Amino acid sequence: DSRLILKRGIVLTIMMFCAVANVTAQNIDSLLREVQNSDQSARLAMIQLTRGDQLDIDAVLAAQEHIEQVDSTNQAIVARLLENGWAPGLTKESNNAIWLVIDHAPLDYQLRYLPLVEQQVATGTISKSDYATLYDRIRMRQGSPQRYGTQTVQHRSSEANAPIYVYPVENPRKLNRLRRKMGLMPIKRYCRQIEKIYGAPCI
Length: 203
Hints:
Largest sheet: 2 strands, antiparallel
Structural class: mainly alpha
Strand order of the largest sheet: 1-2
């Protein structure tokens, strides 16, 4: 039952909030490891559902609802962790988990923490490639062309392997140069990677 799952998520969040009040960097690392695992597990389940010849619409809707529940819980945890700024002394994996939650959050949440992410990019805590992904996602949600070509869209249909399109970019001629500066692979190779992951053509 989705309501039971949501209640469990709320209880888990409260328990984590209690833990966050008196934690060390090591404990935060453990907490964020669970955050990242839940984020990726939920999305992997969705990817697996969309591979194949036909979509199970009910299963996809249920998986999407689960992703939203996981994201809501994770966003609450990260917001609490960032109340006093980015915690020092975290592992690379933990810093990535914080970025991942921000990247998968609604636009207002992303905009709230974008300046903090930019500060971490300047210190090397967050990679340029991760920043590029977040920047492009924000641009796309604002209805503007993306800069680095990290975002793709797929128009859902009854066919699971519907084509995946690279969302429009500001300057196609300079795209690979911009991607290289941010530590991203050339766009053609990126598309091939997308095809392997999702089992659908990337255009």
